Amino acid sequence: LLQSGSKLTTAAKTAWTQFLRPGDTVVDATCGNGHDTLFLAQAVGPSGHVIAFDIQEAAISATRQRLEASLPPGRLPRLELHAACHSRLQELAGSGVARLVVFNLGYLPGADKSLITSTATTSAALEAALEVVEPGGLISILCYVGHPGGMEEYNAVRQICAELKPAYWATSETRLLNRPTAPVLVLLWRCSEPFFGRRS
Ligand code: SAM
After folding, report:
1. What is the CATH number for 41?
2. Domain of life here (predicted)?
């Protein structure tokens, strides 16, 4: 992961690639301009299912256009794009359906910085993602700590991770110790069977 240097987005994609298989269902909870969504669509292929969320209608249009322009119709997975807050993730995506749920928090570079993820909705969305991801699946969260509110949001994510039952969840974070304001990659793996036979 560290060979990605300061680009923890690349490190995140390395983790996604290890988990995804053709035909999987994947959720992009913050699709923005669709760069990550395109990567996910290519990983799950035409037999896969991509569900994406963004609070901005313009982001949903940009994501649809990027995917349709980049992949020929026969290579497109089933696409389900929601112009909605990701706190509605479980209601709109269903329970235990996704191999991977991806969050890239913060605001869209070059766009209105007030349209930003927040501690309250991110916490609600992460609680929903815990239900949406299937056993054996992964939740990936890229947290930005350098902008106002970012550290509080990251701490809320950490708190939820720290309270998960260790028999059913393994959680980790990757951060650059010599770049304290760089993004932090948080990964949550939902175990397919209880760890070490523990049931608590
Ligand atoms: N993954 C994107 C890409 O590849 O272009 C970049 C995502 S950008 C860092 C964060 C996105 O989160 C913005 O597009 C913003 O509109 C969206 N967002 C902010 N609050 C949200 C919410 N409550 N629910 C869903 N999306 C939200």
Report:
1. 3.40.50.150
2. Eukaryota
Length of the chain: 200
pLDDT-derived band of residue 179, with 50, 70 and 90 as boundaries? confident
The CA distance from 142 to 144, in Å, is 7
- Per the structure, how many domains does the chain have? 1
- Atom in ligand 1 nearest the alpha carbon of residue 32: 14
Does the interface predicted TM-score (ipTM) exceed 0.90? yes
Mutate to test the pocket of ligand 1, among 55, 103, 118 (most ligand atoms within 8 A of CB): 55
| Cα 182 to Cα 53: distance, rounded to the nearest angstrom | 25
Share of the chain above pLDDT 90, in %: 82
Per the structure, the complete domain to which residue 87 belongs is given by 2-197
Mark 28-59 as b/e (b = at least 16 C-beta within 10 Å): bbbbbbbebbbbbbbbbbeebbbbbbbbbeeb
Residues 184, 175 contacting (CB under 8 angstroms)? yes
24 lines ligand 1 (CB under 6 A): no
C-alpha 54, offset from chain centre:
12
Model pTM? 0.94
